[in-house]
């Protein structure tokens, strides 16, 4: 069952122009941050979105929650056209689709206690009657395993991991059906990351949440998602069931990414070999993506045809879609 359906979404930003560009009348270029992305989020699943820094993950996430208006494409939430929502319907959408950010500190008001922050979220959307707000705040803190006295304290009094718990509690306050988490643990110490990841897993199971989990860390994706979409330079190059995709990645880019993941307990020789197989070369500029398949300049199996046309994301004889003309079966 599809909760959120994305069809052909693109988002471009005007590139910054230097004085020379302006004086010489060079045409304004565009950063192709997200290009023609189609994707469905199924009710109750955790969908991972992975890709290198700058490939458009955050831009895509922001399009999903309408922090950015896409330049092209359509987004449907429970069948409704998200980009056309107005008034109450838009407020309802804003309530049901919540975002959790990498740095909750930036989105928490430093002058408000945690209790007031949660109470505010509860009252903006009138989630519970006024008299029930304090009890609901306690429940929320309990849900994310923070002590009840956290309500009287300010964001700066907490550690990074605890602040992320506050960010999650605030997202949960409005009883969303979908949470989009953009690198929610990448600013945290590795030891703290696991506890936040486990919290997401626990909440997902307990509350039946649908979760889009965005990260550049493939180990997290492997550990906690049902399906995974791999992005490269603004486009999805492969999307499939996580376990199957990790066992037998189809796109050459996905293959290289997975080979580069350090195993949990690697044999020394194995680890060396894996590092050598990592993606080589630089990520091209999204100002001027390579023609055809954007991965072809770095691809070990590229052919001249790969530079001709952008490959469609299709099944190509396999169990899940992949955007590569060299893949069959
Ligand atoms: N507001 C903006 N104005 C101009 N360019 C932008 C803007 N936001 C993002 N970009 C550019 O769009 C591209 C995609 O950026 P985005 O932040 O979506 O990538 P990302 O995958 O989230 O990267 P990271 O892993 O570093 O968070 C980058 O080239 C970035 O420089
Ligand atoms: Mg990002």
Automatic annotation (TrEMBL):
Cellular component terms (Gene Ontology): plasma membrane
Gene Ontology MF: a single term: ATP hydrolysis activity
Subcellular location: Cell inner membrane
Coiled-coil blocks: none
Keyword tags: ATP-binding, Nucleotide-binding, Transport
Membrane disposition: Peripheral membrane protein
Residue stretches making up the ABC transporter domain: 4-258
Listed GO biological process terms: peptide transport; transmembrane transport
NCBIfam families noted in UniProt: oligo_HPY (TIGR01727)
Protein name: ABC transporter ATP-binding protein
Species name: Limobrevibacterium gyesilva
């Amino acid at each position: 069952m599809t909760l959120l359906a994305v069809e052909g979404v693109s988002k471009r930003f005007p590139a910054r122009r230097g004085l020379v560009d302006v004086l010489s009348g060079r045409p304004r270029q565009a950063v192709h941050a997200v290009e023609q992305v189609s994707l469905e989020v199924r009710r109750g699943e955790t969908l991972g979105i992975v890709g290198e820094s700058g490939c458009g993950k955050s831009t895509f996430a922001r399009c999903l929650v309408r922090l950015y208006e896409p330049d092209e494409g359509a987004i449907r939430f429970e069948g409704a056209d998200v980009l056309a929502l107005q008034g109450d319907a838009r407020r309802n959408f804003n309530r049901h689709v919540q975002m959790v950010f990498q740095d909750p500190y930036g989105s928490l008001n430093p002058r408000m206690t945690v209790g007031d922050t949660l109470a505010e979220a509860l009252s903006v959307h009138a989630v519970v009657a006024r008299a029930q707000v304090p009890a609901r705040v306690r429940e929320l803190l309990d849900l994310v395993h923070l002590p009840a006295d956290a309500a009287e304290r300010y964001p700066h009094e907490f550690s990074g991991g605890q602040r992320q718990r506050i960010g999650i509690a605030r997202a949960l306050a409005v009883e969303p059906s979908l949470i989009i988490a953009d690198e929610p643990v990448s600013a945290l110490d590795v030891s703290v990351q696991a506890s936040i990841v486990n919290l997401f897993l626990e909440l997902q199971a307990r509350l039946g949440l649908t979760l889009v989990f965005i990260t550049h860390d493939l180990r997290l994706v492997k550990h906690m998602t049902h399906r995974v979409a791999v992005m490269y330079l603004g486009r999805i190059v492969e999307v499939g069931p996580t376990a199957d995709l990790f066992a037998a990645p189809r796109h050459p880019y996905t293959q290289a990414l997975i080979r580069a993941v350090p195993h949990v307990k690697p044999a020394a020789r194995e680890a060396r070999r894996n590092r050598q197989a990592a993606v080589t070369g630089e990520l091209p500029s999204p100002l001027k993506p390579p023609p055809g398949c954007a991965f072809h300049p770095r691809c070990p199996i590229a052919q001249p045809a790969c530079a001709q046309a952008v490959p469609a994301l299709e099944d190509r004889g396999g169990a899940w879609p992949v955007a590569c003309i060299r893949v069959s079966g």
